[in-house]
Amino acid sequence: MTYSKLASASAIVLAATTLSTTAKADDLTLCWAAWDPANALVELSKEFEAESGHTMNFEFVPWPNFADRMLNELNSGGKLCDLLIGDSQWIGGGAENGHYVQLNEFFDAESISMDDFAPATVYAYSTWPKGTPNYYALPAMGDANGWFYRKDWFDDPEIQAAYKDATGQDLREPESQKELLQIAQFFQGREIDGKTVYGAAIFTERGSEGITMGVTGALYPWGFKYENTPGSYDMEGAVNSPEAVEALEFYKEFYKTATPPGYTNSYMGESLDAFKSGQVAMAMNWFAFFPGLYADPNTGGDKIDFFVNPPQNVAGSTLGGQGISVVSYSEKQDAALEYIKWFAQPAVQAKWWELGGYSAHNSVLQDPGFVDSAPFAGDFLLAMNDVQDFWQEPAYAELLLAMQKRIHDYVVADQGTAQEALDLLIEDWTETFQDEGKL
Amino acid sequence: MSSFSVTEPSKRSKWVAGTLVITYALITMIPLVWILLTGFKSPADAISYPPKVVFDPTLEGYVNLFTTRTRQTQEFLNANPPQNWADEIVRQYDMVIVGPSKFGERFMNSVIIGFGSTFLSIFLGTLAAYAFSRFKVPLKDDLLFFILSTRMMPPVAVAIPIFLMFRNLGLSDTHLGMILLYTGVNISLAVWLLKGFIDEIPREYEEAALIDGYTRFQAFYKVVLPQAATGIASTAIFCLIFAWNEYAFAVLLTSATAQTAPPFIPTIIGVGGLDWPAVAAGATIFLIPVMIFTILMRKHLLRGITFGAVRK
Amino acid sequence: MSDRTVDRVAQATPVRVARKIRGLSDRAIAWIFISPTIFLLLAINIFPLIWTIQLSFTNFKANRIGREVKDVGFRNYERILTDSDTWLNMQATAHFLFWTIFFQVLIGFTLAWLLNKKFRGNDLWTTIIVLPMMLSPAVVGNFWKFLYQPQIGLFNYIVSWFTGKDPSSFEMLGSVQLAPWAIVIVDTWMWTPFVMLICLAGLRSIPDYIYEAAEVDRASKLRQFFTITIPMVLPFLMLAVLFRGIENFKMFDLVVQLTGGGPGSTTELTSINLKREAFEKWRTGYASAYAIILFVTVFGLASIYVKALNKVKQR
User: Fold this and answer.
1) Minimal Cα–Cα distance from B148 to chain C, Å?
2) Which of A113, A192, C142, C280 gives a 20 to 30 Å CA spacing to C196?
3) Count of domains observed in chain C
4) Distance CA A331, CA A81 (A)
5) Which domains does chain A have, with CATH numbers?
6) CATH number of the CATH domain containing C102
7) Residue C10 pLDDT
8) pTM to 2 decimals?
9) Structural domain of residue B245, as residue ranges?
10) For the residues C233-262, what does the mean pLDDT come to?
């Protein structure tokens, strides 16, 4: 190419890209988990490609390996991802170890306001240290752990009558954790359509984060707290409070008496399998999967309905979801920031929800039509009001693995008592915080 | 052996032995056959209970293995009729094919890293094996044992410093890094096996060639190499199979660009739920080359798996 | 031999005239040929090993680059060796090691002995039996997880067909009692052919005349088996055990795919624990110490074993 041609070509590009701040078309790679919403994001991003001239590539890693693979990638200073939709708990490490670019200046310059996003999601997905106005991500995907059930079974008059006989109550969406267990136990081992079915599929996975995400679904409604005073790391009496012990015993009882056989190491995929193969009456899973479940030809449509994680002493749901961050090792940070700017627009956020992603933008969530836009939309809003997250410390992986071990040892492998499990957990966590110099 | 020999087993004992061995062989094949069958099931058939032995075969697993799909609205589906049979298959889930999956790339990574490291191992290994076989090398036995002992470290243990080293050198998740690493692991096998093969080639051939005016190098590649061809080929296949099957290093040191198939296949998931037919399809495609190689290599199998310690 | 030069020169070879040749000296060639290999091994094996030793005395964490690295002396070793969980992992490894070797030797030897009856088609069946061991343990292990599913997997249905037990009444991977056996079963399925092949080589190495002599002496078949077959095959068998021992001590891929160490920590073999420490918790210093302990253990045990093996061989 001659010099003059080059000059004119870049002039055309400059003139054409009114939206983009850089003249260069980049190949961007966005990393996320491989699941339904990721496919929706691919679809959504086509508009960005058309508008900006950049090309989007995607690297989606399945959940059981997502944390391992991506944290490994960040820790090895890898340049694979320009944009990363990282799990909420990574924010501490991402910020402190310099994996993520701090976005405050960019937000100010582009007048993107965090006030436009649901406060729970900003707190959980974007800020470090927690609650301070230091942003390392833009809320990308709101999520929480919820429940779905076989509506056709719940509506069956025979089953309803049998439930009334057995418990003296009406069969309905449970309004407390104990009612949830009672319903699950009722279905456990029952014959429906010539098949033996079971109560509910819950998370029991050992390897990554499964059982912790499941058990906190019981711990939070019982009033579990990580610390007596937030930020103090004093866990004695909080982590092993009588309520926490009761909740943990409850989860074990649930596992022992109301789950299908063999679901001893199960997480998102297994829960979906159990439900789709007609083995269970109910199952827990992330809201992210609900659009796909609703669309399933066999067990979706009018055979399925959804409810929020039931309260016990208080309302509480386990937080999922992610924010989108720019990786500091990327050589294409400008283009990556452009993507975030594009993604934050209300119109794009509305389309995002339409395609099956859970927008955290107020303009979407507060839209009067939102609640009726999907059978699980109302439940999603309810859940997001009372979400809690795991530790988001830089040492979160150590903290999580300790909890995985102690809970799995107690719930699945029958070792010790709930009290002992939580006492040991405090010991593990104390050791980690001491290593970190925080205690 | 003469058929009149007292060591020749009786007809009856042959028959009993045959029956027992064949029974074992059939049982041992069940998991492999099941992988093959599952690849042709629909996801619903794959997770049905009790398991289905008879089912309607479909290529859904293979389609899911090679494609990325997204769910679409009814309007979109109505407006865009399916373009081919594969599209047809995914339409039943209200989805459309939007592009290829990562499987092809991962499979190619396995091929590149497998062949690259095999070539390097064989190249270096042949040279070293020849030197160990023909020359007086000081501390020969110690060096040979040292080469072997490097295989005793658990890969996870080796991976810790390698991870740091690769990070500093910018080799993380690169083909070059993995090729060098697998060569480092394979070279012990290559040297040991090839030394055995070269030992078996009579020295007289080279010596005669030397007298004829060949240099050592010429004698090496004109006389020894052709003679060692079978040995080199079988050693190469063993190196290839190792690199092909390796999992621990691959899962710890690669994330995408250079990720091979073994860490990838177990993580194939469908859109919601584990896609066992796709996993089985991926496994089938991945395992078949090794099966073919195994059948080709059956004469040298023993030697390969024992580092040449047992030669038959 | 097709090469004519070779044929021609092979006939008349006054040995050791080879010395005075043009070009490099043999000594130089030897070093040129060997040094790349040695260099690669130093770079990929020895240097990392030394680095690991050095790291094992620090509190280094590979995911915290800015953090100050402190020398902690033998603290990591102390912590590992006094941690009761370490010993549970060692026990799980020992259980796995012992029973896999036990079953593989038992079944592998039996198969070899049967194959040595030389019935028709035994080459074909040998090749079929050998297939599992050549396949990727990660890929196959992952699929075994599917086979072990109590509801949808094949394994429980087959067991139930033979025993009449309800297929969903037991969980191979999920129960604390059965999981250690579930991994033993898969490893045995995979690696029995290895022991079988080596035993077969051993059996075939026994010359017929020894049996013929025994026959002349009117030794019973049973006696022949214990006085000829077993002792002659023993060195081969011990070699097979050495290989399986080292391999299974390092075991990672198969078990990670099958149980990931669960339920609880029942099948958490040392390699799996090491992976958690090094690549999930990122306690690099601690994990390095753990790696060194493992290496010393396997190296020590293997050396003792090799001595014993050599004694048997010399007999």
Assistant:
1) 10
2) C142
3) 1
4) 10
5) 25-142+321-388 (3.40.190.10), 145-318+395-435 (3.40.190.10)
6) 1.10.3720.10
7) 41
8) 0.86
9) 104-267
10) 90
